[in-house]
Amino acid sequence: MSKQIIDQKLGGMKQSFAGTLLKLQDLTKLRKMEKELVILQDAFVMMNNPYQFVVVGEVKSGKSSFVNALLGEGVCKVDARPCTDSVQEIVFGEQEHVELRGKYLTRISRPIELLKTVAVVDTPGTNTVIENHQIITESYIPHSDLVIFVFPAKNPHTKSAWDLLSFVKDQWKRKVIFVLQQADLDPEHLPVQMESVRSYALQHRVVDPLVFATSAKFELDGKRESSGFEDIRHFIRTKVTGGKHLYEKLEGQIATASSICDIAEKSLAADRSQLEMDREVQRRIQNKLACGAGRSSKEIDALVDRLVTKYDSIAGEFKREFREGLEIGSIFKRMLPGSESMKKWLEGLQKRFEERLTTKLDEIGKQEAEFFIDDIRTLIREILNDLETITKPKDAFNSTERMDKRRAEVTESVQGKLRELTQNVDMILKGLTTSTNNLPANAAVGGAVAVIGAIIAGVVHVTLLDITGGVLTVVGLSIAGIAILWKRGRIINQFESGLDKGKEQFHQELKEKLAVDLRVVYSEIEKVFRGFFDYLQFREQELKPQIELLDGVKADLLHLATEVRK
Predict the structure, then answer these.
(1) How many domains does one find in the chain?
(2) Cα–Cα distance for residue pair 49/252, rounded to 1 Å
């Protein structure tokens, strides 16, 4: 395949990859993945840079000596003490030049033939104690085209280097080779040590690991046939000739983007899992509110039945008293001078009926209200326990372990409001008195029990007004004079019928009023959760396009990776 065709095909792939990178950058911005965003931004530049080798290993493993011997010049400092205190990018330049590009980065330009096709990055030791060395070493891994792990030939069992291999191979899917440097120090055990490195590499899922043995001392002393560096140089020449390395370089950047997709996918999966847990809490809360409302509705029905039964009982007593008051003997007795008149007797009857009915119904109302309110408090406490499961910090972070502050604020706000309601359910019911007619003036400032009692008293009051202002007034007019003797039966029926109608009116109005107020109570409780439920809806709408964007990027990268391997 001619260079022109290679360049044309590769150019099209790079253009497609650039478009995919822009999409992935948008996703990392949405996910607030700042570190990964920087890596993606660097990927645009790295696509057109020379093939890059990154040399890693523990302090005093012989990395700098290896680089110097490979390049044939003393480019990197070599000392008995750790001397690579920054990342050193070694690139081709017509003139020797050293450029400090930051506290932990030095760029070295040298007119060395090998550097026309490759760039070498010498890194600080993986086990160095100097601040940020591990971080800066790892920041170069995602853009490396090949990572060279250098071990001292006498001891290739260094832990930090093998730990870094997991990061290099598993997270960033980089290609690696292994070098046993300082092979001249222990040639007798070299084959065993090389086999150990192969074994370790296979355990880290490196397929067909390449292991080289080198001696920088032999190379620099002119013993090149024994130094092992010719094998390394042959490997490099094979890598960077024929145009294949250009595809490998693009493939490496695709692998980097795929790794970032994996990170984003785990982050999204964590958020989706958290959202589903929150949705389950929402379902439990809504179910408990529905069950609570149903339970309270039955309690209201039972309360109304008790009140109506008590009304019927008291009304029955006064029916009997009314009949007795209209017996012929009682009528003639009230006609005698100095006796209580029929009018006074009727007024007294009315007053006693009102007082007894109001007193007894008030007692029942307050007693039942205590159970009703305790039930609401218990419901709120149960819901608070549910909320505790979603406000713990361990459940509220994404892949970057960044606490979702908005979520925490919403749930904490709900908890605070619920605690207030638990401590003072009166606040829920207090507002009901503002829309209730004929309530005592002090009901609005009393407790929850007083409020419910006032609601019942208000309905009783309205019912009694109809009875006493209607039925008893008419009856009072009907029993004036001697004509009562002929109207006695009709008047008794009229009185009893009026009380019966009053009972029906009382039952209907009390049930309707308490049912409306019950809905208001639960509506007020539900308002507390509105912010939390709205937040979950917002999160669901926020995650959906991110998931779709990720799926599109993954499909694009898979297609590109397939094309590159052809």
Answers:
(1) 2
(2) 13
Residue 475 lies in a domain: yes
Q: Which of 391, 420, 405 is nearest to 528 (CA)?
A: 420
Residues 294 and 198 in one domain: no
Determine contact, residues 477/463, Cβ cutoff 8 Å: no
- pLDDT confidence bin for 488, thresholds 50/70/90: confident
- By DSSP bridging, strand 105-110 and strand 118-122 are unpaired
Containing structural domain, residue 351: 270-564
Q: 314 and 172 share a domain?
A: no
Amino acid at site 449: V
With residues binned 3-state (H G I as helix, E B as strand, rest as coil), the percentages for the chain, rounded to 5, are 70, 10, 20
Per-residue pLDDT tens digits for 310-328: 989 999 998 999 888 888 7
> Which residues, 6+ apart, have CB-to-CB distance to 166 below 8 Å?
204
- Give how far Cα 517 sits from Cα of 333, 367, 403, 438, 439, Å: 50, 18, 40, 16, 14
Query: What is the rounded distance in angstroms from the CA atom of residue 549 to the CA atom of residue 554?
Result: 9
Selection from 430, 470, 468 nearest residue 446 by Cα: 430
- Do 53 and 145 meet the contact criterion of CB atoms below 8 Å apart? yes
Residue 253 maps to a domain:
no
Strand, helix or coil at 118? strand
3-state secondary structure of 126: coil
Q: Please tell me the distance from the alpha carbon of residue 316 to that of residue 495, in angstroms, as a whole number.
A: 11
Q: Note the pLDDT tens digit of each residue in 77-135.
A: 654 444 456 788 999 999 999 998 877 788 999 999 889 889 999 888 877 645 555 66
Count of beta carbons in the 10 Å neighbourhood of residue 415: 17
Contact residues for 310 (Cβ-Cβ < 8 A; gap 6+)? 360, 361, 364
Q: How does pLDDT run across 459-484, given as a tens digit for each residue?
A: 776 766 666 555 666 566 556 555 66
Burial class (CB in 10 A: 0-12, 13-18, 19+), 557: buried
Residue from 45, 43, 6, 37 nearest 254 by CA: 43
State whether 160 and 69 are in the same domain. yes
9 found inside a domain = no
Distance (Å, rounded) from C-alpha 220 to C-alpha 66?
A: 10
Burial 166-201 (b: 16+ CB within 10 A, else e): eebbeebbbbbbbbbbbbbeeeeebeebbebbbebb
Q: Tell me, what amino acid is at 335?
A: M
Mind giving me the DSSP string for 283-349? HHHHHHHHHHHHHHHHHHHHHHHHHHHHHHHHHHHHHHHHHHHTSHHHHHHHHSTTSPPHHHHHHHH
The enclosing domain of 147 has a CATH number of 3.40.50.300
98 & 212 share domain: yes
In the numeric block, which tokens belong to residue 359? 């007193």
Strand pairing of 97-100 and 51-56?
A: unpaired
Q: Residue 369 and residue 11: Cα distance in Å, rounded?
A: 79
Helical (H) or strand (E) element with 18: helix 3-30
Encoded tokens for 176: 């690696």
Q: What is the chain's alpha carbon radius of gyration, rounded to the nearest angstrom?
A: 45
